Amino acid sequence: MLRGYRSDESHTLLAILAREPEATMRAQYPQLFEPGVWNDGGAALVLVSGEKALELGLSVIAKITGYADAAQAPELFTTAPALAIPKAISNAGLEASQIDCYEINEAFSVVALANLKLLGLSPEKVNVHGGAVSLGHPLGCSGARILVTLLGVLRHKDGKYGVGGVCNGGGGASALVVELV
Which pLDDT band, with edges at 50, 70 and 90, does 42 fall under? Predict the structure, then answer.
């Protein structure tokens, strides 16, 4: 329970956020803004070579066929995925027309929209089940959330190739191309 709230009051985080402006929240409940408080999820992925997967008898879900990083001025970080995504697709030996779906992290809502426009992507192929704004943006596991969602969409849509892209606050971006097996 948060300091200052009695047990008979509604003290869930959503209830508090609904009735308190952020400035008031920061002043009255600084513990809400400490590192780790906003973590709302976690994930674990297993990444192994094809050889190791065979050796261990693992069921392989997908393989990484390409990846890339790109960067531009820090203030332009929201559009950096538009630089990394084409490089990753090229590194995979593919054309954009072969990609069945994209997951582009919504560090902010505009990120997916801006990159969709810059890359000339069909909205039906981007963040098919919703992005981080609707699904959640767990701190520290955005990449895992994007990859798991991407693989689920590929499976659901009988797709073969998918691209995940993220930007970072320093002006950089990373992209990964996966092939569902």
Answer: low
Q: Phi/psi at 161 (nearest 5 deg)?
A: -115, 140
How far apart are alpha carbons 130 and 47 in whole angstroms? 25
Q: Please report the pLDDT score of residue 25 as a whole number.
A: 56
Tokens of 75: 């203030």
pLDDT tens sequence across 103-139: 998 878 889 999 999 999 999 999 999 888 777 777 6
Across-strand partners of 178? 64, 162
Give the pLDDT band (50/70/90) at residue 79. Answer: very high
Go through 14-52 and write b for each residue having 16 or more CB atoms within 10 A of its CB, e for each that does not.
eebeeeeeeeebeeebeebeeeeeeeeeeeeeeeeeeee
Query: If you search the block for the tokens 């950089």, which residue do you land on?
Result: 172
Full DSSP string of the chain: --TT--TTS---HHHHHHHS-HHHHHHH-GGGGSTTTT-----------HHHHHHHTPPP-EEEEEEEEEE--GGGGGGTHHHHHHHHHHHTT--GGG--EEEE--SSHHHHHHHHHHHT--GGGBSTT--HHHH---TT-HHHHHHHHHHHHHHHTT-SEEEEEEE-TTSEEEEEEEEE-
Residues paired with residue 175 on neighbouring β-strands, in sequence order: 68, 165
